[in-house]
Amino acid sequence: MNLFHRIARWLEVRIGVGELVERELTGYLLPRNINPWYSLGSILMTAFAIQVASGILLLIYYVPDADKAFASVTAIMNNVPFGWLIRLLHAVGSNMMVLALLLHMLSVLWMGSYKRPRELNWLTGFVLFNLVTAACLTGYLLPWSQLSFWATTVATNSVGAIPVIGQQLVEFLRGGKLVGAPTLGRFFAMHVAVIPLTIAALVGGHLFLLKRVGVSAPPFGKEDSRNRWQGESYRYESHPGGISFFPNYLLQDLTSICLYLACLMAVLFFDPYIFFPREAFNPANPYLTPAHIKPEWYFLPNYQTLKIFPSELLGLAVQGGAMTLLALLPFLDRGDERHPLKRPLFRVCFWGGILLWLGLMVWGHYS
Amino acid sequence: MNCKAIIAVLGAVLCTILLLLAPARVQAAAGTKVVCVSCHSTLPGKYGEPVALWQGSIHAESGIACNSCHGGDPADAANAMSPARGFLGVPKERDVPAFCGRCHVGVEKDYRASAHGRALGSGGPNCVTCHGNHAVVKASLQLINEKSCSRCHGFERARLIREAMEETEKRMAAMEGKIATFRGRGVDTERLEKGLFALRNSYRSLFHNVDVGMVRAESERIRGELERLDKILRKVDEAERVRKLAGVAVVASLLLAALLFSLLRKSYD
Prior knowledge:
The complex is a heterodimer. Chain A is an all-alpha fold. Chain A contains 14 helices and 2 strands. Chain B is mainly α. Helices cover 68% and strands 0% of the residues of chain B. Chain B has 13 helices and no strands. In chain B, helix 11 (156-183) packs antiparallel against helix 12, helix 11 (156-183) packs parallel to helix 13 and helix 12 (190-205) packs antiparallel against helix 13 (212-268). The chains are: A mainly alpha, B mainly alpha.
């Protein structure tokens, strides 16, 4: 018996590895008509792992001090061996992660997988999306560049439009009346500890719900694509005769992850500057407001919405309303049908929403 | 007079005072920066001309007002030209370099060391001869031109100096643009920018030098230094080219791996 078998045997008699592999990998069956969109979850797990690993490496050299932060990031980019790779991986990776997250949410919406009994899956996913954007926002300030400083000033300013507590909230976020060293301290703590730990915990919760409720079968290619669960009792959605997670779908996951990484690396090596305007490489100067400071692409629709309405409060209220509607969608959309082609109103809302979001983004970019 | 009448009279007096004071305060606030201009622009001839000339100058563009050079109090029309408020008036011809040199310290030193500066007081030019007094334009090589120079001497030597400097000027502008491009890509250009700043200072000191040989030699040295800076940037460019090649390999490997995993999955199906 070679060493590998001896170790396997040693583990088998202690924790029952064989049974575990059978239950969680080879015997874990997925719907036969499962499609590559389902692998976006694995892509996001990989993306999150990359962010954590590159973030830890950046922490070795980054100095969270308003006087030294910009210089430390410049040193990472120029003097630390492969520092440019780690920093770009972290910065470009965050943008790609948001993109993958949006696609994941859209695919869940399109296939009606948010419907009961998966309300909690949707809610945890929705909160995760907000936490990822919060991680992006807090991370944006850390390089302490002109872009960081002024984008954070604009972003925190908009909170001031909330009636009664607006100004107190702005000061709480900034740690003072203006963006400054206390803001950097707060955002740093949120970015490296509070938000990632919460994301990790929620990812655990999201996966737990996925395991308890079971994977939802795509509504495509079925005669009857209605949701059969009526809330009578707990039910695990099993897929007898389905395909094994290992090796079948794991290979699909690996294919998708490699394609995702290829896209990430292509942007990173050939044009990472699409995510870095010039102001990103100038140190923060509180006395010099750049002419055209714009938020990241995924915040452009929010930015433009605030500009469209005559008052910021109205803009914030509209955004809050839209986000609440999206969060509560599984509780509002209670129909049985899941197939998008049998749901014309849903299709109009889905494509209309995407076009509106893209339109606001383009408008925000050129405004 | 009863109480109501007293209140009415006091109210009327108070309103009148406020009405009288309000425009005065507005005028004072608005006139803080323009008291010299507002008076002189209404004056004829040599007293009024400087206003229009100054308004089109680099000084006006940079916020250098009348009092910055001539002293005085720009906020108080009555005492604007009082020596007690630091008014200096118009300097004598010999005093012009010191007058301008209060701000342009290095330039004054260069000028005094030049043939132009040494001839000051014996028919040689001072600052305003070439730069103008109120219509001061941004210092550039265009100031060395046949029309201007041949007022006092032939243009031949000045032409040689200008030609030697023109090429350097072009290279320096190109280097400035290149450094800005690299900075926009996250390259640490601080050392390069400091180097270029020092070179620009050396170059500017040549503006007042009329020794053709020295200008040529110094221009040559500056170009050599610019070449050294360019070499550093070329190294960065080369490193980025290598990174892109590595990128091709990484992306190709990932695509190949994706293809293999996909084929393997199909074989299991």
